[in-house]
Automatic annotation (TrEMBL):
Coiled coil: none annotated. It comes from the Bacteria. This is TetR family transcriptional regulator. The keyword Transcription regulation applies. Residues 12-72 form the HTH tetR-type domain. It comes from Flavobacterium akiainvivens. GO terms for molecular function: DNA binding. Residues 35-54 bind DNA. Keywords: DNA-binding, Transcription, Transcription regulation. Pfam families: TetR_C_33, TetR_N. The keyword Nucleus does not apply.
């Protein structure tokens, strides 16, 4: 391997280390605790080095948001592949959405602005989860009316995101109750797609 390739690999590794350190800090202290200085201290670099990779804390947040949407999309695609029936695909995808929010709480907060300002809305990464779910919904509805599909998507999203937000802001209702509410909502809203 030449020196150019080694330097490029080291830069990519440093960039990845910065993002990993940022996530670790956020898990411990929340988003309000994140700073360029803390990231630098965590990876044992000076703050000016961090600025060589990211122009600001907001640039780091933007990158993390895009990565979050990529992870969510991957989870949705995997959930979809587990089923051949469209209703089951849709239900599996929304359950995967819920599971993502529970396993990646801080990332979800950043992606959707729960208790903070969100980043990266309107990007290909942030649009991809919508595209995946809306495609299945459109097939169930046997309707290509984008406005109607969007309306039904946001009916689902409002219920599920609302339940997630309630649980992030307070103790919530417990895992079993939340999953039952979620299943009831998915079944109920899916029925409306067939009419």
């Amino acid at each position: 391997m030449g020196s150019k390739e080694r330097i490029l690999r080291q830069k990519e590794q440093t960039r990845a280390n910065i993002l990993k350190a940022a996530r670790q800090i956020v898990k411990q202290e929340g988003w309000q605790g994140l700073s360029m200085r803390k990231i630098a201290d965590k990876i044992e670099y000076t703050a000016p080095i961090i600025y060589e990779y990211f122009s600001s804390k907001e640039a780091i947040l933007q990158e993390l948001t895009c990565k979050g949407f990529q992870l969510l999309s991957k989870d949705l695609e995997e959930a979809k592949k587990k089923h051949t029936n469209l209703d089951d695909q849709l239900g599996g995808m929304w359950m995967a959405y819920w599971d993502f929010s529970q396993k990646n709480r801080e990332m979800y907060q950043l992606m959707y602005g729960v208790q903070m300002t969100c980043c990266a809305q309107g990007t290909p990464e942030s649009d991809h989860p919508y595209d995946l779910i809306a495609d299945v919904m459109s097939q169930i509805m046997k309707n290509d009316d984008e406005d109607l599909v969007m309306q039904k998507y946001f009916t689902f999203f409002s219920v599920i995101h609302g339940l997630i937000s309630i649980n992030m802001l307070s103790e919530g209702l417990g895992d079993d109750m939340n999953k039952q509410i979620l299943k009831d909502a998915i079944v109920g809203i899916t029925r409306t797609l067939h009419t």
